Structure formats: C-alpha cells, structure tokens
C-alpha cells in the first residue's frame, strides 16, 4: 500500500449534489500533510490516537474498503481479516449503499451514511483514512 486517502471531518452536511465543504480542524491538520497519506504518516497518526475509545478527542480511524468483482474468489471482508491495519474497521461497499437506487454501490443519503459511520464507531470529529487491498488500491483512493 503506497498511499491511502484521508477524509477530514465534515462540519457541514452532505447535500444531494455532493460534499458542501471541508473544514479541517487544527488537530486533524497536524496528523497529515495532504489528503493522500503515506503508510508512515498513518502509522505515526495512529500512535497519537487518544488511549481511550471514549475520549472526546478527534481520532484517526482507518477504514478498509477492500472490494472485489463478484466473479473474484476473494472478498473484501476476507482481505480485511487477513491484511488489516491495526485498529481498522471494515467499510462494506456492498452494505453502505442507497438501497433505493437501481444502480450498485451508490452513496446513501446523509442520514444513511451517518448511521453507517456511527455503526462503525466513527464520529464526525474523527479523521477517516480509507484504504483498499494492495492489489486493487485504485478503487478507494484514486489520485
């Protein structure tokens, strides 16, 4: 994994047409030099996470978004279990979708996305780092 994508916290909601604005908090800005994060930067940021999961301080939360085509014998959850970054959570691209859309993998509305993030333990003040499998890193972090 050469680079991963860091999603900084959103203060504003997500409107229908896309992300309204990014607000970078001082604590998050210190963690990463850009939206593309090196493994070294991620490792250092994870080492600085608050020691307690109930701390109100912003955290760096790695999300594994590994996904494979349906005819591939591998699965995202299998890759997550075998190769995950410590303390990562699995972001299931087949589950976090707009269930009303006739198309696969469409982003859910803001309420549905917030519910999925809450289920993963991600808070609005956290910095989320999304990564993919080393074989197919282009899906979650295109440059």
TrEMBL record:
Domain Rhodanese: 84-132
CDD domains: TST_Repeat_1 (cd01448)
Listed InterPro entries: Rhodanese-like_dom, Rhodanese-like_dom_sf, TST/MPST-like
Keyword Membrane on entry: no
GO MF, one example: thiosulfate-cyanide sulfurtransferase activity
Keyword annotations of the record: Repeat, Transferase
A GO CC annotation given for this chain: mitochondrion
PANTHER family assigned to the protein according to its UniProt record, in alphabetical order: SULFURTRANSFERASE, THIOSULFATE SULFERTANSFERASE
Protein name per Swiss-Prot or TrEMBL: Rhodanese domain-containing protein
